[in-house]
């Protein structure tokens, strides 16, 4: 049985992912359609901006893991940056494969790819690795 706290954490994480993803997707369209960048480059730029939004919301609202220690945030930022690099790589590659192999429009391919990357890659790593709360931290809260 799921704990009530776990369900709310998951739902808050989905709100954070949605807001970061909405920014990411909208900026990708803008950069590709208006500024004529190839969508793989647009995903790199827009993914980085969306990641900043996502990190901030996750740190302060979803996981409430924001102690004042600079080493803590540096560690979280480093881990989050690694997750973002993996995520952006998977999104770019997945979108490109769907577009080249199956002739799926990059906008649709991106949504399909995002679904798998968000739930199968981003959420587990962000929850259990980036913002993991150890027993010592949870005892003081």
Automatic annotation (TrEMBL):
Keywords: Membrane, Transmembrane, Transmembrane helix. Its main location: membrane. It is a multi-pass membrane protein. Residues 18-131 form the GtrA/DPMS transmembrane domain. It is found in: Membrane. InterPro entries: GtrA_DPMS_TM. It comes from the Bacteria. The chain crosses the membrane at residues 6-27, 39-57, 77-98. This is Flippase GtrA (Transmembrane translocase of bactoprenol-linked glucose). It comes from Flavobacterium anhuiense.
